[in-house]
Amino acid sequence: MTTGVLTEAWNEAPRVRLLADRPVAPGGRYVLCWLQQALRARDNPVVDAAVRLGNALGLPVLVYHGVREDYPYASDRLHRFILGASVDLAAGCRERGLSCVQHVDRAERREKGLVYRLAAEAAAVVLEDQPTFVARWQAERVAARAEVAVFAVNAACLVPPALIGDDVRGRSGFLRRHEPERAAWSTWNDERSDVAPYTGDVPFEPDPLEEFDLDDLVAGLDIDHSLPVSAMHPPGRVAASARLARLVTEVLPAYAASRNDATRSEGASGLSPYLHFGVLGPREIMAAVNAAPAGGQHKRKFADELLGWREWFHHQARQLAAPERYDRVADWAHRTLADHAVDPRPEMETLTAMLVGETSDETWNACQRQFLIDGWMHNNLRMYWAKRIIAMTASPEAAWATACYLNDRLSLDGRDPSTYGNIAAMFAGSPSDRERPVYGRVATRGDGSTRKREGGDAWLAAAASRPAPLLAIEELPVDPYLTGQPTV
Ligand SMILES: Cc1cc2nc3c(=O)[nH]c(=O)nc-3n(C[C@H](O)[C@H](O)[C@H](O)COP(=O)(O)OP(=O)(O)OC[C@H]3O[C@@H](n4cnc5c(N)ncnc54)[C@H](O)[C@@H]3O)c2cc1C
Prior knowledge:
CATH class of the domain at 4-157 and 207-219: Alpha Beta
Largest sheet: 6 strands, mixed
Radius of gyration: 23 Å
Distance between the termini: 36 Å
Order of helices and strands: HEEHEHEHEHEHHHHHHHHHHHHHHHH
CATH topology of the domain at 4-157 and 207-219: Rossmann fold
Number of strands: 6
Helix content: 40-55%
Structural class: alpha/beta
Bound molecules: flavin-adenine dinucleotide
Strand order of the largest sheet: 1-6-5-2-3-4
Low-confidence stretches: none
């Protein structure tokens, strides 16, 4: 059976899930490779799987990447980042001898159901296995409606998540399975296409994005223009590679000691936006880290973050029906927060004050302004930021929805397994011995780890007064975070 080349006779087979068990269409013109988030042409198991299947069927691969105006939180910031990645994706596909067509949905080029229309001409569909938010909803819908075999391939993790097994619960059990696998999954070969690139028709007029002025294109779309692009995280492969080079030369040599210091701009890698949108994958990053001239303790610490924590949250998300929903928070934390839901909340803030980073808490404002301006926040600040939201909102449910909403709307790396996994950890973690108002036995967190550093007070004051974009919100979107209802 031809499709066995993906699910049996391939060293990457553990990355592949048969999402729709239908036959390969005999008259298919290509293998459709639909990318949503793994926006890179090389070191990409989704593309490799499509090429491998195409070779077995004697068919070319057609890579498709499209962006709609109506995904949740569509903004200049997210759109520009995605489109920059898409330009490099298409160029990289061409270098690999693969056709890549792109579409940016807009008033003058409205297209309905493009993935289905492309799938109707395909022998099979290969898409990415993403466990959260839009990418998951859309993949599940396409798998339900397409009339051909649909394969989902994991490109986000170094170790294929299926190898860990569904019986693992705690992080230490996860690490016991994950660590011994890492070496075997650290190298890769880009599959070579034996078939000439697809040059036939497609059911729409593609947008060759490299010929567009992307800033102009984004400015003309019906999306949120109040959230500007991030100067700290420019879009595209060149910027991502520069960040990776900076990790090796400036960050890694002191990573274990400086990673927790939010006041140091070179303390952490800043790679999470590029990882979230798949501009870089964990294998390429780890290859650079392993070859770096830094000390072993720094490399081990970095691997613990990138592999030990990031892939742990991917593992958790895969096991949950809706990883973004409040009911994922540990039962004991749910109960203790519910017991204190009626407590007086003297530190309540309005949603608008929180959104624009103008609450009465200077440290919180400093955190929020990183999200607002940089589209990213330092890990140490994120912990304080999330914990404080519990006291600033009317109920535990409102706190959860607010934290997820702010993270998802503003941060380039939001809407990710690490988003909801980390927020859930801040809403639970180890229970405190002390019962406090509002928090119950959920541990609180002060700002000492930043404020008590030399120059910490001045750094926080400056960070809290950085000029930030003035955003607006009418109503907190609660559906995805409380009921798990898709909003697109
Ligand atoms: C409340 C809260 C919300 C968070 N939301 C997100 C989010 O939306 N998206 C996101 O990618 N990360 C999130 N994190 C995890 C972490 O804060 C960021 O990944 C990290 O700050 C990104 O910066 P960096 O790339 O410089 O990290 P570095 O310190 O350079 O780490 C390298 C990479 O390791 C991974 N990593 C590091 N820390 C963690 C962690 N705690 N959990 C999972 N992976 C980690 C990231 O992929 C990161 O890019 C959140 C953490 C908290 C406490």
